């Protein structure tokens, strides 16, 4: 491609609203343009990168035996009612009515559509297992679309769905996808970790892993072991602990004492005004668990993990009580709740239970109790692990490692759905004995446009993007120093011709621009190999520079050709 | 691919609601399944055909120098208001509101989005010309979705947009696309005609051609010359005529006579009850032309062409008057309007003006005038070509041919938009003299999913589909007669392996089904080459049958391999 003919509008500065590096660079390198909040057009270079991603994904999906299909974006609301998700999905589901006033959703995911398809087509175990995938536009009306393609409202996704007779079959299908995801993200040049995760809205009884690209901009926190392969989302992360004996009456600790703590509602305020460490504080939060109030106590330096809490309580809905309810339950203003003297059950985290002499709210505005003893000054209704892991916690998987925290971008997720959808929507098959059984399902997603952003978050320097080889929009960038120099332009055109003949994809900067402008653009768009055709072209000498290296090499045009084909062949 | 693992649910019978042959066959051959009216899922075979179409289109678009981009489906309503189309487009535009109550349209086409993009990126003539295309899902809320993919509500389209400095530039861009369309539809194996067409909703000042696949199910009528290349949509078709002198007072014709014609309102009723040929009747219709009533007279065997009529009247809106207005203007019940004695202008078609002694409504219920003489018994306000062409009309382009009528499916359209969108949305550039000018635009669409249907409409027999070579989901179908015969299955697997090694895409029917079932399925799905591995496989003899031929050939496995590679190489 000749650059003079390419719609490649580079920008010296990124628009100020672009916070994420990937968003800034993708705008500056002319890959994308915003049409509306969270909705983007892909310009030619961006479209090329997206197509390379699609190719990698198709190749790896096909290798697993998965079959490509294509399902509609417009989905009848009735299907979503059958699965029970039409109301539950909330405002992220884009809804519309057709000219006959029939309700539709724009698919954010396709469990309903594919379950509907398969209940019509599958009736015997002989037709199983089967895995289907599609590459398709998805819609999700994010409350706060941001970071460019990282959190968009219309985006490209690969979603796959497996159908099996048994859980063993699902495990096999799941493992195949898990391995394919490994290959896909590796080919994309991503540094990533598969982590244990929570099932969230899609639901399902089995396990689930998220594939996390490591990046500071990531909105998820990952707990990963310093020693073994263990990694989990913070919400799911467990840790190693030794169960210590609870306190008993005989412990030699000072008496309970009520102290005046005006306006000290937050942990940091207490730490500052009383000069005590936060791990001596018993933080008390009030939740409605399936509509019934409970008090929850964790250490002041810990955070409640609602998923663990819900698990311990066997509750399906959990939310913090509102201010009025809090004040009614405690008789005090917000910030002074404590476990002593409450008429509701008190749930205590293991770590909090070990606090020997704690500080806790007195259920009286502007007062706290000092020297609180857990299980003695108040009764423990339930004891368990209900906090987030913290850095330094022991790894739950090995005996040596400790947990460290990383930020990650979720680029893919694999789910064992089990029978959640097949039971709700009556998708069954006859097994070898003629017994009617629900199909065992799995689902597997990759946010393709998000992968593109994640790759840029990991591959850039001050000058611009540095595309991994398999994703680069072009493989070689030829930059003649002067468009007015006939010798240079002729040498450049010749090289362009021979590279194309060798099957290499080349961008030739034939624009009549200053050399500085051309080099800046070249670094910005980040094609892995650059050939500069300068004054020495008259003597047959060209300059080859890899985007990831500092130094250029002086080579003859034959050497250049050999170096490039070798570079791409060996990768 | 092994067929036992492929989701390929063939049907013996098509669902009764499928009227079009292509719809029936695509359901029966397991290519598509309906999700909602006009909304389909593409199963694996259908997805493969669609991808082949995408590949052909991409290759031919890229050859023209057009650049692929990707624009969003969700488009802000504000953009559509800027072009003036948000209201005008009517109920076919799918509309929705996001969670912040902002209005969006789901793109049925992308003129607004791309004009918005280009007004931001183009500012100099140096950046022109440029042609951009995308392959993307479109939404159109058809009143009556039908015929499977032929008239759907969610469908795949290729749309391209050209941007030029001048009309000469546009003509060049247009011609390139026109030629690319020729190549694309030829590669798809379609019998098609490019026809002159009317600009319709998309509008534009230049010309437009529709590419029509010839098929009886087609909803459009094409007038094409028996002799030269002339072809046009019926609505646009002109014809050759010799202007004859009008009648004069001295013609020797019987006196005007009022006759009693109870309940004879329609042409056929008059023909039958009075026993006169329809071309002796002067048919009178009443229109509102930009709100002003006019009477329009054509011959009884002709149809008014509203586009020609609007052109003659220079009217932008034209519609038949309602019953009450008709009765008020004529003083008679509907069906008895005539040109004599009306107080509104009478517009007359050339052919009607030649009627020597006509029959016309008397503007009196149950009465007609006999022996009406045009221009003598009533005044002609305007005379012109305002009728549809009819079979046998002379070709307007050559002196020898006559027009014949065909039915066609519109598979593509090329448009010279001119400045319609660039002026409305202020997309301009500075020319070489520094003068600010609107960009001259063209737009070019191909209904990809509709092409798939059109191909099937043209390529089938009683047994099923006969895919053109470039579109076939697989290139070769291997069918062992008995899955229980080890020799056959081994020979089949060996051939499968060697064909795949030779780069041929193969489907192997490894199902344990009766031979008859397998052959029926094979004919139905229509892969161009079938290899039957039967009893003679033990002696190394296989049977090769082309889907388009009746007779099979007995060949050795080496000969089979050579025949297949040769067959696909030579095409």
UniProtKB/TrEMBL annotation, chains A, B:
Domain of life: Bacteria
Record GO terms (molecular function): ligase activity
Assigned EC number: 6.1.1.15
Domain Aminoacyl-transfer RNA synthetases class-II family profile residue range list: 38-468
InterPro entries in the record: aa-tRNA-synt_IIb, aa-tRNA-synth_II, aa-tRNA-synth_II/BPL/LPL, Anticodon-bd, Anticodon-bd_dom_sf, Pro-tRNA-ligase_IIa, Pro-tRNA-synth_IIa_bac-type, Pro-tRNA-Synthase_IIa_type1
Keyword hit for 4Fe-4S: no
Keywords, sorted A to Z: Aminoacyl-tRNA synthetase, ATP-binding, Cytoplasm, Ligase, Nucleotide-binding, Protein biosynthesis
CDD domains referenced in this protein's UniProt entry, alphabetically: ProRS-INS, ProRS_anticodon_short, ProRS_core_prok
Top EC class, one word: ligase
Compartment(s) where it occurs, according to its Swiss-Prot or TrEMBL record: Cytoplasm
Catalytic activity: tRNA(Pro) + L-proline + ATP = L-prolyl-tRNA(Pro) + AMP + diphosphate
HAMAP family (UniProt xref): Pro_tRNA_synth_type1
Subunit structure of this chain's protein: Homodimer.
Function of the molecule: Catalyzes the attachment of proline to tRNA(Pro) in a two-step reaction: proline is first activated by ATP to form Pro-AMP and then transferred to the acceptor end of tRNA(Pro). As ProRS can inadvertently accommodate and process non-cognate amino acids such as alanine and cysteine, to avoid such errors it has two additional distinct editing activities against alanine. One activity is designated as 'pretransfer' editing and involves the tRNA(Pro)-independent hydrolysis of activated Ala-AMP.
Family: Belongs to the class-II aminoacyl-tRNA synthetase family. ProS type 1 subfamily.
Free-text comment on this protein's domains from its UniProt entry: Consists of three domains: the N-terminal catalytic domain, the editing domain and the C-terminal anticodon-binding domain.
Name assigned to this protein: Proline--tRNA ligase
Gene designation per UniProt: proS_1
């Amino acid at each position: 491609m000749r650059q003079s003919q390419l719609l490649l509008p580079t920008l010296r500065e990124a628009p100020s609203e672009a916070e994420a590096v990937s968003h800034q660079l993708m705008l500056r390198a002319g890959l994308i343009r915003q049409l509306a909040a969270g909705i983007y057009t892909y310009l030619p270079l961006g479209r090329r990168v997206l197509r390379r991603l699609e190719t990698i994904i198709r190749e790896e999906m096909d290798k697993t035996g998965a079959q490509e299909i294509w399902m509609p974006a417009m989905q009848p609301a009735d299907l979503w009612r059958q699965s029970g998700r039409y109301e539950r999905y909330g405002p992220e589901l884009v809804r519309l009515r057709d000219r006959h006033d029939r309700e539709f959703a724009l698919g954010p995911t396709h469990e309903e559509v594919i379950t509907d398809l398969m209940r019509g087509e599958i009736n015997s175990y002989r037709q199983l297992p089967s895995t289907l995938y599609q590459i398709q536009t998805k819609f999700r009306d994010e409350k706060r679309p941001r970071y460019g393609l990282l959190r968009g409202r219309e985006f490209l996704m690969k979603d796959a769905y497996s159908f099996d007779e048994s859980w063993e079959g699902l495990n096999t299908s799941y493992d195949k996808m898990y391995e394919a995801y490994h290959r896909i993200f590796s080919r994309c040049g991503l540094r990533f970790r598969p982590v244990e995760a929570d099932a969230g809205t899609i639901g399902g009884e089995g396990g689930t892993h998220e594939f996390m690209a490591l990046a500071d901009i990531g909105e998820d926190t990952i707990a990963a072991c310093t020693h073994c392969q263990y990694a989990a989302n913070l919400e799911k992360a467990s840790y190693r602990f030794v169960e210590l004996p609870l306190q008993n009456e005989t412990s030699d600790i000072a008496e309970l004492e009520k102290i005046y703590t005006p306006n000290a509602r937050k942990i940091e305020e207490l730490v500052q005004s009383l000069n005590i460490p936060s791990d001596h504080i018993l933080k008390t939060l009030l939740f409605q668990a399936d509509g019934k109030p409970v008090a929850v106590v964790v250490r002041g330096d810990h955070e409640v993990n609602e998923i663990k809490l819900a698990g311990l309580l066997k509750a399906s809905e959990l939310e913090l009580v509102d201010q009025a309810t809090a004040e009614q339950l405690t008789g005090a203003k917000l910030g002074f709740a404590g476990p002593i003297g409450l008429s509701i059950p008190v749930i205590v985290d293991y770590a909090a239970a070990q606090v020997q002499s704690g500080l806790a709210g007195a259920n009286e505005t502007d007062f706290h109790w000092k020297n609180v003893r857990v299980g003695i000054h108040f009764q423990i209704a339930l004891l368990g692990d209900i906090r987030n892991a913290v850095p330094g916690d022991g790894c739950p998987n090995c005996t040596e490692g400790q947990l460290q925290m990383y930020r990650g971008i979720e680029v893919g997720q694999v789910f064992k759905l089990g029978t959640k959808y097949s039971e709700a929507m009556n998708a069954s098959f006859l097994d070898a004995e003629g017994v009617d059984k629900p199909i065992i399902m799995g689902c597997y997603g990759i946010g393709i446009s998000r992968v593109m952003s994640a790759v840029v978050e990991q591959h850039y320097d001050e000058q611009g993007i540095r595309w991994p080889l398999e994703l680069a929009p072009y493989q070689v960038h030829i930059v003649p120093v002067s468009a007015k120099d006939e010798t240079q332009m002729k040498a450049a055109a010749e090289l362009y011709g021979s590279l194309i003949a060798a099957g290499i994809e080349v961008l030739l900067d034939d624009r009549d621009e200053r050399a500085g402008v051309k080099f800046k653009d070249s670094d910005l768009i980040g094609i892995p190999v650059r050939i500069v055709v300068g004054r020495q072209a008259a003597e047959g000498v060209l300059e080859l520079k890899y985007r990831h290296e500092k130094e250029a090499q002086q080579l003859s045009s034959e050497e250049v050709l050999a170096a490039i084909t070798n570079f791409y062949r060996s990768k």
